[in-house]
Write a structure and sequence with these properties.
The complex is a heterodimer.
Chain A lengths: L1 H27 L4 H4 L2 E6 L9 H12 L5 E6 L6 H14 L1 E6 L5 H11 L4 E2 L1 E2 L14 E4 L2 H14 L4 E6 L4 H15 L6 E6 L6 H13 L4 E5 L4 H9 L3 E6 L10 E7 L1 H14 L6 E4 L6 E3 L8 H16 L3 E4 L2 E2 L5 E3 L4 E3 L15 E2 L4
Parallel strand pairs in A: 1-2, 1-3, 3-4, 5-6, 6-12, 7-8, 7-9, 8-18, 9-10, 10-11
Antiparallel strand pairs in A: 11-13, 14-17, 15-16
Helix pairs in contact in A: 3-10, 4-5, 6-7, 6-11, 8-9
Chain B lengths: L20 H33 L4 H12 L3 H26 L7 H18 L5 H30 L3 H21 L33 H18 L1 H11 L1 H6 L4 H28 L10 H11 L4 H25 L4 H17 L25
Classes of the chains: A alpha/beta, B mainly alpha.
Chain lengths: 375, 380
């Protein structure tokens, strides 16, 4: 009985709070964008919007939505994966009237986004990751993600042609499957040019830790690496440090060529604009939003930065050829015979894993030719 | 400031000649409110100038901040949710500060407290909820207490600077947490975000009835009140304040300074560890890298703004929670970057630290001087 009483009291408070907020908002913002729009879409980033990396890639996607008639975009950056992100989502719903929210950081999903999905069944939530499972998670939640490993393979192709020392470098955050696949793809791309190439990897342990990324980049250059790429949230430090030391760089997440125009070879970029537009088109048309969507280069979820001035003609030719092959579909980066750098067989002669293969999602090895350890 | 004799300690000499006793009573207590409040206002005015310089309206800014932080029941709850972990984190700074120690590594105690609590919660899966939650709390307090207690012990017995050692130990704690959640304690299904096994639902702490704020707020407020009583009303607190004023004097008086320092730092770390436990039990549901969210560092700001008074920590934490909550709305409505609220916090911090120099300088707050013929000359 008390339970019922409390619920109704809470609902009353909520309604009056929303009413008060609405009143205040309309009083002080007569032409508030949020309330004039047909639909408001919220974006939440874990880091700064202009990080030349993970968050910028999402923010660039969000920016393209602003041009769509009737769509209002609200954004919040530097939101930690704590109760803060829950309150940010709630605030976007309560104060801005958001009906579709994209919490873009991996760690936002469980428990934060799921808690909000349960609380606001009428609001749609789509999370960048691939965690959604129809048996476990509600229908107003969903996942989208891209297969970017092949982008790193193409990075590796150009790196393999460009490297003089035959030593590449990789600055990585954590030894988790997504990162390991990128490292392995980069090296295998380079080995498609010259099987003698090796790649040294250094894990910083954190997604965003500028000082360690700079140290790792310097250490890689000191050891002779002359083309470096990375998988951390913001490649900015790696790109500037490596280019400052005279090494070439391959980008990741977004286009970092403005940071090092001469040294930037190419880069594996997200193309979230396509994905976000797809969701918003569905929202405007009133059709149900997909709950689970993934794609790679061929689907336009991932794209490559334009090739830089230092890319040789031979590199350009192989890059274009491999890209064309990937666009046809069915291309496998991880294919046998392939061993890990500990000597274990990870793919037999007859095995080839396309980018959608489930086996790749629990990758726990570095392939032969990568210098480094997962633990 | 510490060696200025405060007016309250001096016996009243004039006995209120010509002034109502109530006015004197108020004057003696007003200083601690008026100076911080004035500092807050000065800080906000300076920040207005900054906002005007970047071409935005300060009026709209403060209006937006009010709406985002306190303007509705939702906003108030939003602020309180963000304030909850800051209460305990600030105690980790304030308690040692009363002993004259500057401990800034509460973040380490928070993450280890969270990991210890998660480990206990997973290991005891199946046991009664009350017992498990209690033991998770004990584990959190113990982990944090040992961590910061060690800082106190190093300080007293080995003369290691506690500021540096606590900060460095926070880095070690975070590395240790990463090692544990990526290694021995890892849930094998947490592929791309290494975490401990999730806690069973019955071991999760919910919200305070009627509010959308978790129980950490109540725990934090109780801890602040208890800490205030400990410092102001018990002989240990008295001893700590003596030792904080002058360690040599305390030793000459025969006070056990060593156990006092270790005890207070361990208690402070225990509170931070409890904050980590609450973060796991009430918010995250498992221990992972999200535990290192910076609460330990914001706690430093809260404690200094509260002048290390545990009761003052409560309103200051709510204020900072509100600033944090309104930061989102400022980004969304005014198109200002997230760093805006950091600039505000920084300005407030500097102005309030500067305002410390004004304590004991205003005659208006000292009724003993009101009768002096030169009262209106010199300082106010």
């Amino acid at each position: 009985m008390t339970e019922r009483f409390m619920l109704s009291r809470r609902d009353l408070l909520k309604t009056s709070a929303a009413g008060a907020a609405l009143g205040l908002a309309s009083a002080s913002f007569p032409i508030s964008r949020a309330f004039a729009a047909a639909a408001t879409v919220g974006f939440i980033y874990v880091g700064p919007k202009d990080d030349y990396g993970y968050n910028q890639a999402h923010a660039e996607g969000a920016a393209t939505l602003k041009a769509i008639e009737g769509i209002s975009v609200v954004e919040e950056e530097n939101v930690p994966e704590t109760v803060d992100v829950q309150k940010t989502m709630e605030s976007m719903i309560n104060l801005d009237g958001a009906s579709l929210i994209f919490p873009t950081s991996f760690g936002y999903f469980d428990p934060h986004m799921l808690a909000m999905c349960a609380k606001f069944p009428d609001v749609q939530f789509r999370h960048c990751g691939g965690m959604w499972n129809k048996d476990k998670h509600p229908m107003n939640a969903g996942s989208y993600f891209g297969y970017i490993g092949m982008g790193q393979y193409l990075n590796g192709v150009v790196a393999g042609h460009t490297s003089k020392t035959k030593k590449l470098g990789f600055v990585a955050a954590k030894p988790i499957p997504q990162v390991l696949l990128n490292i392995n793809s980069f090296l295998l791309g380079a080995r498609s040019v010259d099987p003698a190439i090796t790649c040294q990897v250094i894990f910083t342990g954190e997604w965003s830790l500028a000082i360690k990324e700079a140290e790792a980049t310097n250490a890689l250059v000191d050891q002779g690496a002359d083309v470096i790429t990375c998988h951390v949230d913001s490649p900015k430090v790696m790109v500037e440090t490596a280019a400052g030391r005279g090494a070439f760089v391959c980008g990741y997440h977004a286009n970092q060529s403005p940071l090092a125009p001469e040294k930037y070879l190419t880069g594996a970029e997200w193309n979230w604009a396509k994905v976000y537009k797809m969701f918003v088109d569905d929202l405007v048309a009133g059709t149900p939003l997909p709950n689970f969507t993934r794609g790679g280069l061929a689907d336009g979820f991932v794209k490559m930065s334009p090739l830089g001035p230092a890319v040789s003609e031979a590199a350009r030719k192989q890059f274009d050829g491999t890209l064309a092959e990937m666009m046809k579909g069915g291309f496998s980066v991880i294919k046998g015979p392939l061993k890990s750098n500990k000597g274990d067989v990870v793919a037999t002669e007859s095995q080839a894993f396309v980018e959608t293969a489930i086996e790749l999602e629990s990758m726990d090895y570095l392939v032969e030719g990568v210098v480094g350890s997962t633990a | 400031m510490a060696d200025t004799v405060s007016s309250a300690d001096v016996p009243a000499m004039t006995g209120g000649k010509g002034f109502p006793a109530a006015l004197e009573w108020i004057a003696r207590r007003a200083e601690g409110f008026v100076i911080p409040l004035a500092a807050l206002i000065v800080g906000m005015v300076l920040f207005s100038l900054f906002i005007a310089l970047v071409g935005k309206s300060p009026v709209q800014l403060y209006e937006t901040m009010w709406r985002g932080g306190f303007g509705s029941w939702f906003s108030i709850q939003n602020s309180l949710s963000r304030a909850a972990p800051l209460l305990l984190a600030a105690l980790c700074v304030a308690l040692p500060a009363r002993l004259g120690l500057v401990v800034i590594g509460g973040e380490g105690a928070i993450v280890l407290g969270g990991v210890a609590a998660a480990a206990v919660g997973v290991a005891l899966n199946g046991a009664p909820a009350f017992l498990v939650i209690l033991l998770m709390g004990v584990a959190g307090v113990a982990a944090g207490g040992i961590w910061i207690g060690a800082v106190g012990a190093l300080r007293h017995y080995r003369a290691v600077n506690e500021t540096i050692s606590s900060l460095l130990m926070a880095y070690i704690a975070i590395a240790l947490m990463n090692h544990l959640v990526e290694g021995p304690l890892r849930d094998p299904t947490s592929l791309n975000k290494p975490s401990t096994q999730p806690l069973a639902d019955i071991y999760r702490l919910g919200n305070i009835p009627g509010m959308e704020v978790h129980w950490g707020l109540v725990v934090g407020i109780v801890a602040c009140v208890v800490s205030w009583l400990l410092i102001e009303k018990t002989r240990w607190g008295f001893a700590a304040r003596i030792a904080g004023g002058n360690v040599r004097a305390a030793q000459v008086q025969g006070l056990a300074v060593g156990p006092l320092i270790v005890g207070f730092t361990a208690l402070a770390g225990g509170f931070a560890g409890l904050a980590g436990m609450l973060e796991v039990a009430a918010v995250q549901g498992s221990a992972n890298a999200s535990l290192a969210a910076g609460y330990g560092y914001t706690g430093i700001l809260v404690a200094f703004l509260a002048r290390h008074n545990p009761l003052a920590i409560i309103p200051v934490a709510v204020l900072l929670g509100g600033i944090d909550a309104s930061g989102g709305l400022i980004q969304r409505r005014m198109d200002l970057p997230d760093a805006t609220v950091l600039v505000l916090q920084g300005m407030l911090f500097i102005v309030i630290l500067f305002s410390e120099t004004f304590y004991g300088r205003f005659k208006a707050f000292n009724p003993d001087l009101w009768q002096r013929p030169d009262f209106l000359k010199g300082t106010i």
